[in-house]
Write a structure and sequence with these properties.
mainly beta, Pectate Lyase C-like, 11-stranded mixed β-sheet, 60 strands, globular
Amino acid sequence: MKKLTCIYTTGLTLILGLAISTASAVTIYVDAATSTPPGDGSSSDPFETIMEGVNNLAASNTVSLGGHTLSIASGTYNEAVTFTSSHSGGTSQNKMLATGGSVIIDSNGLVLNQCTNIVIDGITVDQAPAEGIKLLTGTSGVNADVTITNCTVRHSVKQGIYIARYNSNVNISETFIYDNRYSGVYSFGYSDGIFINHCLILANGNNGILQSIQSYITTKNSIIVGNGGYGAGEEHNQGDITPINCCFYGNGRGEFFSVEYIYFPDPGEWRVVQGVYNTAEGINNISGGSGNLVGNPGFSDLANNWNFSQLYSDSIIFDAADDGDDIGPYQSTSTVTPANNTYYVNDATGSDANSTIQAQNSSTPWKSITHAATIAAAGDTVIVAEGTYTGQAHITKGGSVNPVTYQGNGTVILDGQSTTDKGFYLDFASGIILEGFEVKSYTDSGIALNYCMSNSISNIKTHHNAVSGINLRRSQRTAFTDMTICSNSTHGIFFETEAYYRSGSGGTTLNRCSIFGHTGWVNYGILKLTGFSPEKISNCNIYNNWRGINCYNGTDFTIENCVLSGNNIDAQYSYAVAISLTAIKCTVINCIIANNTIGLKEEHPQGDFNSINNCYYNNSVADYYDADGGGNLTNVTDINNLSDVTSTNNIGVDPLFINVAEGNFRLDKESLCINAGTTYTDLKWDLYGNPRFIGKAVDIGSFEYNSHIPGTVIIIN
């Protein structure tokens, strides 16, 4: 692995060398710290603001076109910066570059409007109120031959880098593009020759890279991870994203979304074919794709102020670029070698003063999960002994090829005692396995995830927390399994609100969970406001909440083989599931929707349900509220006759639960929900541990009826 110790120094040496070699080149200096306004732009009397330097660049162009350098000294510049055609280079490029240290354009963006032959080198654009860097197109020209290199674009309100229509030959290299609210890089359309090389595109609210109509993007040797939407997404079949030797991982809606226009000899026609690809093989089979990897890049210290330089030694990105270097913006400067240790924690007998060697023996454990979380790294397992633990388990170290596992052994309780805000707090952590705990009485959330990706959380009861059982913020592809989420003061699961509906925590799945007892005014079992909807909810009982599930301004999602019952605290406003705004479609399949105020509710004509093989029963106001003009539908005939959605094979009968009052939603042997579902499912088990497919069809609800009572001896001759 080649090591680079200073990106800015390397870039400066190369680019200044070019500037000096041009006979009529001018170097214009800007230094907010040492300038004595008005300044003349010389090294001894620099300008105070970048825009003063930009204006002087235009004047220099009138004397000699191109080859000039705008040299920006280290500092924070709180100003909007705009380049226009008057700043374009000629046969030689004009350059704006950082001359050492950190140059930050703070709370403003950088705009290029109809420029050619421009280089932006070493600049950080931070907290722009709209796009971080924006390439515009005007009536009299476009941007062409633009280079953005060694830059950082972060925390923008909209896209990190936005490329408007008709731009060409845009080169983005060795640049960090992260935590922008919309997509990292978005090419709006009709742009060719967009080349992304050795970049890191991480934790953007929507897609990492997004292509629209007739945009052609090649992305090479780049890390594309933890974005809310797709790692790379094509919006239109006319145009392409070609991925080469990139590392994809933990992108919420999938790693790569492809739209292709393909000719089918039989029946002899062109068709649009689209699909999501989550494996290296699938991505490499995309036209032009090769050498791509899907896996955890192995950042070992990401929670430390977005530290990208430290990686686990087993990282898959080392030497994996097509040029033989590491994938990403620079070569790793330090590595951490996974130890693959097993550590023990015991509140009753342990001491946090014990060494890491001692803590690998169950007789000399650590005392607190919190301390163990400061040590445990990729490949390690933390076994927590039975007992009650107070305080917060703040987990910042994630996994790499191997996960970090926290496992409760017996009845292990995290008790916030109404004084600590969060129980398990996963913070910039990926590849975590968390299983076998009870979490209660925290002043905020029992489990909170912040900027995480690809974590597995199972067999945990989180209850009686002051806000929510689980809170997700910009965390991708979290799988919750065998969870009990109940009696929290506000919501069971809360997806933090995003300003843009296609952003946030994507790819969340819930399987075999019970969510109940959130009965206060406007309390929800699952609440997702603006942002990505959970991807799939399956084999769950969601019952006795003020409202069951609300997805407002979200994305398409599926609810399969669930029981949605007793969400009827308010005689008028409660419901099992509601969706609203944006063209969101929720597919509800093989579910029992019973004893609610309203079963399924469209709160806006742009939101629709597909209702397939569901059982509706005893919903007091309506089984289905149709916002497209149908209003309250109170029988399944009307639901099955809906023409604007897929609605078929729904039934309206008493499901015959064993004991609703005790939350036992197993089916009586006489239930007409048995064998009344679809004839195909990818679910393997039901909520209660039974094989999901027994009989001629899937049963409706969270329970798959098995006529053989446990303990019965079956003799097969």
